[in-house]
């Protein structure tokens, strides 16, 4: 299940995913050193306009996330990427966002790719929550989700991006 269908499914995921991501971060922060290599990692990076394709990657143990994009207009913007693994090693999360909420860049393309896990849920937003403002999701037809990627949909994407959230299921060794 890559993305829920229908309004009620999206609302259910929209409520569940932020809570799950907070739990992942809180557990890892509360128990440093208990599971080597699984503490969440947040890194800042510049999203640069100019029409060239750029990438930014983070990895955590066997899992990784790469954000590839091209943007126009304005100047560099500070963005963040957070990667985390659940305590039971069953989920890998990758969040990419502009902390100020709304990007003023004109994105011509974007793709977020996870390695080592398969996407269970993903959502892209034209505006990230900040202050009293809420996340504003892209329309479902503006982006597509595969087992390992979330990317713009050519001809449908309206060039606005401020946040991507991915939750992926990690492979399990059966006993």
Automatic annotation (TrEMBL):
<dbReference type="InterPro" id="IPR018887">
    <property type="entry name" value="MYDGF"/>
</dbReference>
<dbReference type="GO" id="GO:0001938">
    <property type="term" value="P:positive regulation of endothelial cell proliferation"/>
</dbReference>
<dbReference type="GO" id="GO:0045766">
    <property type="term" value="P:positive regulation of angiogenesis"/>
</dbReference>
<protein>
    <submittedName>
        <fullName>MYDGF factor</fullName>
    </submittedName>
</protein>
<dbReference type="GO" id="GO:0005615">
    <property type="term" value="C:extracellular space"/>
</dbReference>
<keyword id="KW-0732">Signal</keyword>
<feature type="signal peptide">
    <location>
        <begin position="1"/>
        <end position="30"/>
    </location>
</feature>
<dbReference type="Pfam" id="PF10572">
    <property type="entry name" value="UPF0556"/>
</dbReference>
